[in-house]
Structure formats: C-alpha cells, structure tokens
Amino acid sequence: GLFIGDDVGGRGIDAKDGSFAFINVSVFGTDGDSIRVRDFNELTMMNVDVSSLNADGLDIEDGSSVSIQSSSASDCDDEGLEVDRVDSIVVVGGEYSGNDGEGIKIDSCTNIRIVNVYCSNNGDNGYQTEAEDRDAESVEIIGSVFVGNGEHGIHLEDGILADEEDGQIHFVSLRGNTSDDNEEFGY
C-alpha cells in the first residue's frame, strides 16, 4: 500500500534492475511517468491506480514477464499503459480510459494476453500492438471493451526489424470483445 499524490516534479516511482511487485499502489499528478520499470526479470502489479500530468501512466520496458491485475491508468497525457520489449505480458481486468494517447500500447513483445479490460475515450487507439524490434508470437484479447476511442478500438500492425525485414504478428485471437463507437475501425 502506497500513495503518491499531486505536485511530484518527476516520476512517481522509477524502478530498474531486479524483480518487482507493486500491490495497492496509487500515483497521481506526476510530471513524469507515474510508474516506470526498466531492465527487469519479473514484474507484478495488482490494484495499481495511476494518472500522470505529462507522460505515461505505466511505462514498462525491457523485461522478461509482466502480470498486471485489476489496475487502472486514466487521464494521462500520453499512454495509459505503454510496454516495449517484454517476453510475455498478461493484463487481467482494469480500466485504461481518458488518456491522450493509447489506452494500452504493447509493442515488440513476444506473447501478449489481455483479458477483461475496459478502454474508452482515449485520444488514439483503445489498444495497440506493433511488431517493431521483434516478432509477436501471439496476441490474445478476450472479453474486453473498446469504446469511444479517437482512432481504432484495436490496432495490430507488423513493423520493420533492424535488418529491414518485416516484423510479424504470428497468431491473433480476438474472443468475446466489444469495439464500438470508435472514430475509425473497431478492429
């Protein structure tokens, strides 16, 4: 249990090099990312609630495995949840709404599983995955809602690897989702 309130001049939490668990954490009104985690082995977040004035809510990069449960990132000036270069990530439950960028943006990750999340009224996509630095072996999105976003509900895109070959998304499973009233495509 941790609360970090308004008027934080930089990031709320900046963690690097190790394995981390954030449980019952709230971070609001930071000028930088609410929570930033880099170069880690395992990361667990449960009941985390964040909002950032000038950056991402949750910024996660370069790790092995991520588990995020019943957490929220809303009213951030960039992405609610941004993840880059992670081997596996599971996001279960939570709300990612009212962010200026994407609600959830997961790029260059190998295995992705999203279950029962709610992404609404984000400035860009509700959910986005791009295969940039590596192939995405699987993307599963189950029982989630993507409504009223400024671009697509769900946006999946192949990218360009460093050697100029196309990065690929090999397997996609979209089951029991709702994508409605988005500015552009539902999927």
Describe the model.
The protein is mainly β and 187 residues long. Helices cover 0% and strands 57% of the residues. It has no helices and 14 strands. It is globular and about 40 Å long. The mean pLDDT is 92.
Q: Note the overall shape.
A: globular
Structural class: mainly beta
Which residues form runs of ≥5 with pLDDT under 50?
A: none
| Count of distinct strands | 14
Largest sheet: 11 strands, parallel
Strand content: over 45%
Contiguous helical run count: 0
What gap, in angstroms, lies between the N and C termini? 37 Å
Our Rg estimate from Cα atoms comes to 15 Å
Proportion of helical residues: under 10%
**Helix-strand pattern, N to C?**
EEEEEEEEEEEEEE
- Global mean pLDDT: 92
List the defining traits of the structure above.
single chain, 187 residues, mainly beta, eleven-stranded parallel beta sheet, three-stranded parallel beta sheet, 14 strands, 0% helix, 57% strand, globular
Question: What is the element layout, followed by pairings?
Answer:
Blueprint: E1 2-4, E2 13-30, E3 35-52, E4 58-73, E5 81-95, E6 104-107, E7 111-115, E8 118-120, E9 127-131, E10 138-142, E11 145-147, E12 154-158, E13 172-175, E14 178-180
Parallel strand pairs: 1-2, 2-3, 3-4, 4-5, 5-6, 5-7, 6-9, 7-10, 8-11, 9-12, 10-13, 11-14
Summarize the structure.
With 187 residues, the chain is mainly beta. It has no helices and 14 strands. The strands form 2 sheets. Strands 1, 2, 3, 4, 5, 6, 7, 9, 10, 12 and 13 form an 11-stranded parallel β-sheet that branches.
